[in-house]
Write a structure and sequence with these properties.
The complex is a heterodimer of chains A (398) and B (391). Chain A has 398 residues and is α+β, with helices and mostly antiparallel strands. Chain A has twelve helices and eight strands. The chains are: A alpha+beta (398), B alpha/beta (391).
Chain lengths: 398, 391
């Protein structure tokens, strides 16, 4: 009897101190808290909308937007719908962010490496660059570049180089081969994909060769060259067979005001925005690169030098591949920052997503517009982050 | 799979928010008309006297959102919050000693005097043009006076427009060196415009109607617009004509610029109050009417009579005899007297800010003179400034 009782009586730690119980309780409580907070925010918004009769809904997306958009990369007419205008604006932001991320990364790596240079002057210039651009608010920098661009001559008195290149405070215009219709645009994309596939294949083969034979095979240069050659040859061949799949548009002054039409124009606002964003972001990237490089053990570099590798080879083949693993995650978040910071464009007159969408709030419900803006930036950021994480997984040590 | 969870989750949260917004899209339409409109009018009609303060909170059923009770909120707070600006001379600007001055600011001061009894009991919230809608929709300010054009969709979505206090119209400013004399010559021109304004929308209409293919350069604030225009980044600068005149004073060479003759739009400007509080709406309308009728009756800040004059209209205005609705509005008997003593009548406010002592916009024979048979002796008449009679 006593033995049975002994067996029935729980003798371990008390139930409320059991690890499982504590973990589950915490989970459930925090779950409730999250649900409560989300519900509270939601009902607060719903109540406010209700009480103040704030308009909402998404039916406006079908209506014609009827308002011009400054510079745009997709064709746009004022008769297009809100939805399409929103897409046009989003593409503006995407273009800024892709070009900005590429330039900022290249410049950032360059400055970061310079920062560690043995040359005193180079290292100090890089230091000043980093500390200046990193510590002045971006909006102020954007205004600065905006006023610099405004100081260029007016469109009617601007610089004209060889009748082809126009530089003035409204923007820089260059001749540009636009694809001739939708079929041609698809053809261009096909060429680019073919080039990238061929380039990647060559890059892999050369890397393999370098690893197996130990001979320098320059996989990066080989890959890029192949991609360009494949694309260019295919383009030329098809141009001869089927006629040129593009029209070269030449910029030229037009009308009473001598505004430049045709060609491809990087507007003054876009110029100022890109310069500002690239300078600002590259200073952060430079610090990330520096940290990455410095994290590689000194022994690695000494060993590479002892093997007779040149400083450049040491950097390229030994330091950088190892530094990359540390650099990539914070680099991704800098790319996201650049994308989100581009929303300041409205201050300097570039029609980015936020600028256009804020104009939309005049004729459409503000709440709906802001939900769309948030969704668009979130989608962009998650896409970037996905690509970045895939790459991060690709280079990590298995 | 777990690696991509956050992307999936992110997408789902967004989808969820959209879905919730879509769902509530149907719900509020049903309960709202039943619960709300019935209650406030009952409170307003049944209890016109002080009890309004206690009577109104019940229908709203929420403690801190004072829909229908703004008068009490403002009196408890001790000052009026107005959304306005400080970047356009004449309308809303800072004087040499840093005080808010301007036509819009004076309208806010008049309201503060009527409600709280002190023209300086104001708090000016500085907002951009594009922020005007959300600011007044949220009800965080008591009045929006920031050169806001009255339009039907703004009236429906933003708040209630109380009274047109200035009739404006949109124009264009260009550099004389362009040699153009009409806005219809702006083919393929690049035009600078401030974001979130009717100006921006009218520009689009004007360009579409006349097939001008105008390129709009949109900036968040007016200072950037002026800088871009002055540097020649755009060929023309568009805004309400009075603001073109005001902002023109800040250009380096004002004489090099000309305002084109075309007026392409109607821009009636005036104060806006948040939706959902009829009493507050009425108070603002009445204060505007007081300013206008004070000028019509020839009462200025200098000559406010201390006792009854025998002229029943004037005595009613000043509160020495009869009523123009002080009690139901919840204002003091002498509110009009206080307002006129503190900020002056419509004509004085105009002269101080927009007239000879301000940015010098002519009022004589213009739309901003009083109506044709206004009873005053030598005030400018023949215009459209008119309000509901004070009785």
């Amino acid at each position: 009897m006593a033995a049975i009782l002994q067996n029935l009586t729980y003798q371990g730690i008390p139930i409320w101190r059991h690890a499982l119980v504590i973990q589950w309780t915490a989970q459930i409580l925090s779950g409730f808290l999250v649900v409560f907070l989300v519900a509270w925010f939601f009902f607060n918004i719903a109540n406010a909308i209700d009480e103040r009769e704030i308009p909402y809904g998404f039916s406006f997306l079908e209506r014609a937007y009827q308002t011009p958009i400054g510079q745009h990369f997709l064709p746009y007419e004022t008769s297009d719908t809100f939805l399409y205008a929103f897409v046009v604006a989003a593409v503006n932001t995407i273009v800024v962010s892709i070009v900005g991320v590429i330039l900022a990364t290249l410049l950032g790596i360059f400055v970061g490496v310079c920062r560690l240079s043995g040359n005193w002057l180079v290292a100090k210039v890089a230091l000043v660059y980093i500390e200046f651009f990193r510590n002045v608010p971006l909006l102020i920098q954007l205004y600065f570049w905006f006023y610099i661009v405004l100081a260029l001559p007016q469109v009617r008195e601007g610089y004209v180089i060889a009748d082809r290149l126009y530089i003035n405070n409204a923007g820089v215009s260059i001749p540009f081969p636009f694809p001739d219709g939708a079929a041609a645009a698809l053809f261009w994309i096909a060429l680019a994909v073919a080039g990238i596939i061929a380039g990647t294949a060559v890059h892999r083969a050369l890397t393999q060769r370098e690893i197996t034979t130990g001979q320098s095979s320059y996989p990066l240069i080989g890959g890029f060259a192949t991609a360009i050659v494949v694309g260019a040859v295919a383009w030329l061949v098809i141009s001869f067979v089927a006629g040129a799949p593009f029209v070269v548009s030449q910029p030229a002054p037009q009308g009473t005001f001598g505004r430049i039409a045709g060609g491809f124009t990087i507007s003054g606002g876009l110029m100022a925005l890109l310069i500002g964003l690239v300078m600002y972001t590259s200073s952060f990237i430079a610090e990330i690169v520096r940290a990455g490089i410095q994290s590689v053990g000194r022994g690695q570099i000494e060993a590479a030098r002892a093997l007779g590798l040149s400083p450049m080879s040491t950097l390229r083949q030994v330091t950088f591949p190892q530094a990359l693993r540390i650099i990539i995650p914070p680099l991704i978040s800098q790319c996201l920052n650049l994308t989100k910071n581009s929303s300041l464009a409205g201050a300097i007159g570039f029609a980015d997503l936020t600028n256009v969408a804020k104009t939309m709030t005049q004729t459409a419900p503000a709440i709906s517009i802001f939900i769309l803006i948030m969704a668009a930036y979130l989608a962009m950021s998650l896409a970037y982050s996905l690509i970045g994480n895939l790459y991060n997984r690709h280079i990590r040590i298995a | 799979m777990k690696r991509y969870f956050k992307y999936v989750a992110g997408a789902m949260v967004m989808a969820g928010i959209m879905a919730m917004m879509a769902c509530t899209g149907d719900e509020p339409t049903a309960p709202a008309p039943v619960a709300e409109p019935t209650a406030p009018p009952a409170a307003a009609t049944a209890m016109p006297e002080p009890p309004t303060a206690e009577a109104v909170p019940t229908p709203t059923e929420s403690q801190d959102v004072q829909v229908g009770n703004r008068l009490q909120t403002v009196m408890d707070r001790g000052h009026v919050i107005c959304a306005s600006r400080n970047d356009v001379p004449g309308y809303g600007f800072l004087d040499a000693s840093g005080n808010n001055v301007g036509f819009d600011i004076d309208l806010c001061r008049a309201l503060a005097t009527a409600v709280v009894g002190d023209p300086n009991a104001i708090e000016i919230r500085l907002i951009t043009a594009a922020e005007r809608g959300p600011t007044i929709q949220s009800g965080e300010v008591d009045m929006l006076v920031r050169t806001v054009t009255w339009t039907t969709s703004r009236d429906a979505q933003w708040g209630n427009y109380a009274q047109t206090m200035f009739y404006d119209g949109q124009g264009f400013m260009v550099n004389k060196s362009l040699g153009i004399s009409s806005a219809l010559e702006l083919h393929d021109a690049s035009v600078c415009v401030t974001q979130g304004t009717t100006t921006e929308l009218n520009l689009a209409d004007f360009s579409n109607q006349n097939d001008l293919h105008i390129e709009a350069l949109t900036f968040e604030d007016t200072a950037a617009v002026v800088a871009a225009y002055e540097s020649g980044q755009c060929d023309a600068f568009t805004n309400d004509r009075s603001q073109l005149a005001a902002l023109g004073t800040s250009l380096a060479n004002r004489d090099d610029h000309v305002i084109l003759p075309e007026t392409i739009s109607e821009e009636p400007l005036g104060p806006v109050v948040p939706h959902g509080d009829d009493q507050w709406f009425d108070i603002v309308k009445t204060v505007m009417a007081i300013l206008i009728y004070a000028e019509a009756y020839g009462v200025t800040s200098d000559n406010v009579p201390s006792a009854a004059t025998g002229d029943t209209k004037v005595d009613r205005l000043l509160g020495t005899e009869g009523s123009w609705g002080q009690e139901p509005l919840g204002l003091s008997q002498t509110a009009a007297q206080d307002v006129i003593k503190a900020v002056g009548n419509y004509g004085e406010i105009y002269d101080r800010n927009l007239g000879p002592n301000g940015i010098n916009l002519p009022r004589e024979n213009g739309r901003n003179a009083l109506w044709a048979n206004a009873p005053c002796q030598d005030c400018p008449k023949g215009g459209q400034i008119y309000a509901a009679p004070l009785r």
